[in-house]
Amino acid sequence: MQFQILGPIRVLDGRHEHVLNPRKVQALLAALLIKSEQVVSTDQIMMEIWYENPPRRAIASLHVYVSQLRKFLAGTGEDGSRVLTRAPGYQLSLGADTVDVHEFRTLLERGRTLLQAGRPAEADHELDAARVLWRGPALGEVAGDGPLLQGFTAWAQEAWLECLELHIRTQLALGRHRSVIGKLHQLISEYPLQESFYLQLMLALYRTDRQGDALRVYHQARNVLNTELSVEPCRALRDLHRTIIMGAEVVDERTAALAS
């Protein structure tokens, strides 16, 4: 059985997909999965479900949601008793089950380590496997105002951006400059304030003999950052802009550091 939270919450039993519909029960499951094998207090769960506006009979309602979650897990072939009552709240015991975010984190760490060790082909294999797991945004529409779910979705988004950046780095390290240009244009359209993607696109364009296009990307980044945030590009972007103007010899000496 696999619990998936890197996107809309669902449970896979190897053959079938099971979706938990009530939003508040989804929030309960999300909180227990994020803190799997740990006790999540009743107060924290209520904060995730209702934030600062719990109903008058919140405790009674929470008991109903726990019962509904146990019935849902039993209906998937899972053991509903894995939702344990543990003072001061509840705990989800995974047993042999898995959660996609745990595998994603492991693959991301392996990819990062392999790339730092100068093994980009192996790193790319791990990062490709991590990218397959992402169905984002994490938790789908369940993430609300509660600090646990909000903190998790913020972390997951940053981890996803790192995964994308590392993937492009592996491609650049493998000499696949032309193949990443289209991907980077798309990423910039999706994440216009992510300066690392402008940097990588400038490198890819320059290495495919498109110096003018690389410089135009810098000015695009500068215009976006000035307009949206009233700031100048980061030092890495400014340095790369200068080195491209200065010529290929200087760029070749610095590109590896700038792309890291």
| Order of helical and strand elements | EEEHEHHEEEHHHHHHHH
| Low-confidence region ranges | none
Query: Radius of gyration from the CA trace?
Result: 23 Å
Number of distinct helices: 11
Distance between the termini: 37 Å
Structural class: alpha+beta
**Superfamily (CATH H level) name of the largest domain:** Winged helix-like DNA-binding domain superfamily/Winged helix DNA-binding domain
Principal-axis shape:
elongated
* Number of distinct beta strands: 7
What is the level-2 CATH architecture name of the largest domain? Orthogonal Bundle
Approximate strand percentage: 5-15%
The largest pleated sheet is described as: 4 strands, mixed
Average the pLDDT over all residues and give the rounded result: 92
Number of domains: 3
| CATH class categorisation of the largest domain | Mainly Alpha
Describe the structure in your own words:
By secondary structure, the chain is an alpha+beta fold. The protein folds into three domains: 9-96, Winged helix-like DNA-binding domain superfamily/Winged helix DNA-binding domain (Arc Repressor Mutant, subunit A, Orthogonal Bundle); 98-174; 178-260, Alpha Horseshoe (Serine Threonine Protein Phosphatase 5, Tetratricopeptide repeat). The protein has eleven helices and seven strands. The strands form two sheets. Strands 3-2-1-7 form a four-stranded mixed β-sheet. Strands 4-6-5 form a three-stranded antiparallel β-sheet. Helix 9 packs antiparallel against helix 10 (235-246). The two termini are 37 Å apart. The model has no long low-confidence stretch (mean pLDDT 92).
